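## tool: complex_structure
## caller: assistant
## args:
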Amino acid sequence: MRLALVGVSHRQAPVELRERVAVDATGAAALARELAHGCEAVVLSTCNRTELYLASEEPDDVLDARASASLLALAGDDGAALAPVVYRLGDDSAALHLFRVAAGLDSLVPGEGEILGQVRDAFEVGVTGPLLDRLFRQALHAGRRARVETAIGESPASVPAAAAALAQQVFGDLDGRPVLLVGAGKMSELTARNLRSRGGLIAAVANRTVAHGEELAARVESRAVGLEEIPALLATADVVITSTSAPGFVIDPATAAPALRSRRGRPILFVDLAVPRDVDPGLATIDGCFVYDIDDLESVVEASLAGRRVEAVRAEQIVAVEAERFREWQASLAVVPAIASLRARAEEIRSGELAKAEGRLGRLPESERRLVESVTSQIVAKILHLPTVRMKEAAAGADGVVYADVVRHLFGLGEEEQS
Amino acid sequence: MAELLVWPALIAYGEAAVAYAGSLRGTGGSARLGIWGVRVGWLAQTALLIAQALDSSGFPWGTWAGALNLFVWLVVGAYLIWGCTPRYRLLGLAVMPLAAALLVAAWAGGGTDASTRDTAGWLLAMHVGLMLAGLAGLTLSAGLAGLYLWQERRLKKRDAGLLRLRLPPLESLDRLSARTAFVSLVVLTAGIVVGLGSFASGDFDVSMAVTLAIWVLYATGLILRREMGLHGRRFAELLVLGLTLVAIVLPLTHFAS
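## result:
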């Protein structure tokens, strides 16, 4: 049984082509069912790739042709434009590719967290048999190992995520933490959403134009206020996100001092996403005040991505180990029928000989008959143990077919059926 | 036999200290090794203390070295409460080298011998036990305060690698160090009260005066925290200052008196 992969991804295909072959979960399930006539099929479609995995006894070229035709058919009239960027992989390469995908090593941002769930979803709606079932389970295992045993997915990969992670470094649990948004910019909204997803509570949206602030406030379930209310709000807000287009500082030590005094040492984090800056950096000299501007956050993100790239090297090693295990398992399939036949033949001989001796054994008490059964079974098992292990080892080393043929020849396996 | 138990404890504490240092550059593997070192070492030291207790007719940790042995056990035991959670594992960076060093000192002073015969009455035993437990807690709170100061410095410096090596959150460290200091102060107070039971006028010496000064320092800090909002860096510095007094002044005055 062999494995084939046909796909397009962000590495070769621009989004205009990728979107032509993208399918949702329902579409992926339908396509897998359509492809799975006489074979196993899984369709993995994410924003960065669409890949068809097929496993069948069919010859290589037939399997590839089926998968390619299905993928190009998805693109409709753009099939010709898609053809040059389609990649085709088989067996070991296809398995290694899927393991890398599951570990987030093939993603735009190494170690991104969504992909493992997407692989799981594709597996669940696919039509799997022994090969793809094993392949996808092992890919999910490899993906989990990469995340657990390395720090590839730990650090934030965007400015909003970095801002939220910094807030957690100061406050820990963000559940119910009051957040003040100053300005109603896009970046501010993205950061607010990130904080909200971690439990943060948007206490108010302060904007020069209150009506404009109300739109954002409605989206983040908050209220809009004017900029003049900022000093009072600083007394209660723990995180302040600013992104106004004001030419000068909106928050400086003079305006913030009374509110900060009333905080009685409780820390406060200012995340200044504006250029020119909204928060006077002089605030950072006050105890318990932490001020981060856009450059600081970008440095944090860059350091995080550098860390992910370092961890990716370790994740590659894990993926390689898992891919090798899969290869060994797949290779062992070649000797499984020979092993099964050998064991069946041995059992047949054992039971036949016991049947011949039935006349003499019949006189023995039941307990002794059971003992004879047990001893003969153990002898057969012990004799066959080493050949079984050696055949599996040979299969892992690519000599499995030769060994299987030799065993079949030596023990005459299959000859009786033929005769 | 009992004397031999000090070695596995010492080796495991040393291993934990090295592993925690290694965890600064690596990921979970080193930290896991560190935590296992703490667990194994603490179990070995527990066995050592049990062996010492069985071999003695009374309280076998009345000498300074014996008390140090018990103190290390209490510090590591208290650390185990937090040390086994990934969030606080870096506290081991401060605690485990200290534990290993103090255990060596206890061993050098004969505090880990099975033949320790310098026993004391139950009142004195309780006094010493409570005092050591209180001081162990204060050591731990100072360790947490040290982590707070480190984390605060990184946040103030806007260290780009802040999210690569994650320390516990600032607020958690502040809260936990204060709670640990409070509980330790209660235990220390109990130790002082029990000690008064065997106190005779004229016994008052420099080490007692320093102990009381330490008590006053911590009590004042905790009251200021509650009443005047002494949080964050200044409170952390006070806890570290307190430990400095404990670590430097108390042994000096003990040997001087």
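## assistant note: Chain A has a mean pLDDT of 88. The two ends of chain A are 27 Å apart (CA to CA). Handing back to user.
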